[in-house]
Amino acid sequence: MLKSLLIANRGEIACRVIRTAKRLGLRTVAVYSEADRAAQHVRAADEAHPIGPAAARESYLRIDRIIEAAKKSGAEAVHPGYGFLSENADFAEACAKANIVFVGPPASAIRAMGSKSAAKALLEKTRVPLVPGYHGDDQAETKLAGEASRIGYPVLIKASAGGGGKGMRIVEQESDFAAALASARREAASSFGDDRVLIEKYLTRPRHIEIQVFADSHGNAVYLHERDCSIQRRHQKVLEEAPAPGMTPARRKEMGEAAVAAARAVGYRGAGTVEFIAEGERFYFMEMNTRLQVEHPVTEMITGQDLVEWQLRVASGEALPLRQEQIPLDGHAMEVRLYAEDPSKDFLPQTGTLHHLRFPETSGDVRIDTGVTQGDAIGIHYDPMIAKVIVRAGNREACARRLAQAMAEVEVVGLGTNAAFLKRLAEHPAFVRGEVDTGFLERYGDEVVPKEQPASDRVLALATLAKLDAISRAAAAARTTDPHSPWATSRGWRLNDEGLARLKWQDGERLIEVTAHFGADGYRLDLPGGSVAASAAVDGSRLAATIGGAALAASVVFRGEEATVFDDGASHRLGFADPTRRAVGDASAAGRLTAPMPGKLVQVLVKKGDTVEKGQPLVVLEAMKMEHTVKAPRAGKIAQVGYAAGEQVEEGASLVELEEKAQ
Ligand code: ADP
Asked: Rounded distance, CA 489 to CA 394, Å?
């Protein structure tokens, strides 16, 4: 077995590889960019080396610096993780040249599968079925258009060098072909520096089913069953599961053997994934990923194997740990990617600090792979994935239920996430029935994306109970330490003379007053929908509450003047209008508009002294490759414009200020 390993990656995958390497007794070496100095993967490794600035192309993509770190640390081997340099044949070669073991396939296999077109040309000679299409060298527009007509519309144009769904265009009819080709080529050229494309028959209701394969250097090659990754958004995976719904043993064997044949055709070694697109009874090769996949944990959950351990054993020259017939398939597993993004704003990526972060309790059946912890930030430089949540159960239905439950336990304060979206997905009746194909989210997206709802009475009651508890604790503490603190007096609360407290909550535009009448064992709360008896035992952010006789568990996290209520798998934010301080409403009424994330101002649409209407666009910020328009929260006069177009701004920078509202 190898003795030491450098992990040429970051985030959850670096942490995950380090975990197995340590268990196997390897010394682990991390590399990190300036932005990742205090990142979890750096802390987890035995030693860590800086490799450059935050931008990936100046650090995690720098072959020379990573090789140098490997030499300096004396690492025997390099694990590339996924993304970054994991499918870079030059990197595999550079490792070999420096006498470092590359934990992955030979450079020749990476090259052979690196181009979708070349891979298909190679597999044409095998029995692996291909999607009807054209993947030739002649890239003349007339040739491609002719091939598209021959294949029959709709067709899919794909970048040969593609990945991540880039450079992909669906073309419904001949008259759209030329424009789609031009735009696919543009995107391919800018993303991959290579504008070659291939054309495939576009399948209208396909499933994405991929096979995990493994090969060693002793001539053994096996498949570890399939994963169904049909739940996608813009051709990107959202949820993965194993086994695939409706898969029969005969079909599994057929696809598994086709995948192994594809791997053998390129002299494969290590972990790889052969992706198929399946429709009805038929399946076709799409591409092979010559690395460990993001979704490998679902395979680990149903086989009980550690695929990183397999990788390290194979890289050490050992034979595969199991023969084909020994590979278990037990139960059902699902994985979702918990992202910092806002599903209600077309999945806009979110950046910021994870002020509060709680994952579901882990067990043999619930696994969390993450590279962050509470207090860490999700920045603009890397993928905004917070964690992968993986669950297992005896069967698919129980697994979907367990997943929904796990997502309901996720709590994040500081930035928006897709947790509620993922929970609703796991609960969607069509998903539960196993009716999955790549069009699922297009079909049901509206039902799955959570809608912004006004705060329910239940949410208001929970926030009120938590706030009353916090107030009474603060009052008790103040009485003993500082008799002059505002909390030590009952002013504003008048608990003593009236036996009640009035709390004001800001719910979006609404200001809601909740009156709490103090009783012997709890409160009577006057809520918008009526009066209800309520009490709660509070432990940190956790509440064991009784509302109207019903017991429920929830969480309320306070951050400054804001309460986030986590209840029943949804979260709701409320502003607390503290009567002893300035009302919360005034913070936005003061009209200080700040940058939601670091970025570049591309347009400034107003100047000092302008009068604006509510909702009027003020500035346009470009961040994370998207444009965000900052609009006026109310009508008013512009008091200040902080920056000019073209300027770079930090998160929280004051972009525009409106004049104080006349009271
Ligand atoms: P990338 O490498 O950019 O991720 P893939 O070739 O892996 O691209 O395809 C990504 C996704 O696009 C697939 O999972 C599937 O949903 C869809 N797709 C690919 N090829 C086809 C096709 N011929 N017909 C319909 N959908 C397809």
From this structure: 57
Q: Residue 487: what pLDDT? A: 54
3-state secondary structure 289-323: ECCCCCCHHHHHHHHCCCHHHHHHHHHCCCCCCCC
Residue recorded with tokens 């009716």? 435
CB count within 10 Å of CB 491 equals: 10
Question: Ligand 1, from 87, 196, 234, 235: best to mutate by most atoms within 8 Å of Cβ?
Answer: 235
> Does 291 participate in catalysis according to the annotation?
yes
Q: d(Cα 459, Cα 186) in Å, to the nearest integer?
A: 49
Per-residue pLDDT of 235-250, as tens digits, reads 999 999 999 999 999 9
Instruction: Report the nearest atom of ligand 1 relative to the CA of 232.
Output: 16
Angle subtended by helix axes 296-303 and 307-315, to nearest 10: 100
CA of 273 to the centre of ligand 1 (A): 14
Please name the residue whose Cα sits nearest to atom 12 of ligand 1. Answer: 235
What is the C-alpha to C-alpha distance for residues 252 and 274, in angstroms, rounded to an integer? 13
Question: pTM for this one?
Answer: 0.86
| Atom nearest to 438 CA in ligand 1 | 16
What pLDDT is recorded for position 628?
Answer: 74
Exactly one of 65, 207, 252, 291 is catalytic; which is it?
Answer: 291
Distance 235 CA to ligand 1 centre (A): 6
Distance, in Å, from the CA atom of 410 to the CA atom of 391, rounded to the nearest integer, reads 14
Mean pLDDT estimate for the chain: 92
- Dig out the tokens for 355 from the structure: 């002020």
List the single range of 179-188, 261-270, 484-493, 589-598 with lowest mean pLDDT.
484-493
CA distance 242 to 235: 19
Report which ligand 1 atom has the smallest distance to the Cα of 165: 3
pLDDT for 624: 65
Q: What digits encode the pLDDT tens for the residues 468-488?
A: 999 888 878 877 776 665 555
pLDDT at residue 662 tops 70: no
pLDDT tens digits along 67-123: 999 999 999 999 999 999 999 999 999 999 999 999 999 999 999 999 999 999 999
Q: Tell me which residue has its CA closest to atom 2 in ligand 1.
A: 163
Ligand 1 neighbours (beta carbon < 6 A): 131, 156, 158, 162-166, 168, 200-203, 206, 208, 232, 235, 275, 277, 286-287, 438
Kind and range of the H or E run holding 270? strand 270-279
Largest Cα–Cα distance of the chain, in whole Å? 89
Angstrom distance (rounded) from CA 321 to CA 313: 8
The preferred substitution site among 166, 286, 293 for testing ligand 1, maximizing ligand atoms within 8 Å of CB, is 286
What is d(CA 39, CA 108) in angstroms, rounded to the nearest whole number? 34
- Is the pLDDT score of 496 beyond 60? no
318 alpha carbon, distance to own chain's centre: 35
Query: Structure tokens of 40?
Result: 């979890």
Are the beta carbons of 599 and 629 closer than 8 angstroms?
no
Q: How far apart are CA 69 and CA 31, in angstroms?
A: 7
User: Which residues lie closer than 8 Å to 249 by C-beta, 6 or more apart?
Assistant: none
Q: Which atom of ligand 1 is closest in space to residue 204's alpha carbon?
A: 25
User: Which residue type sits at 481?
Assistant: T
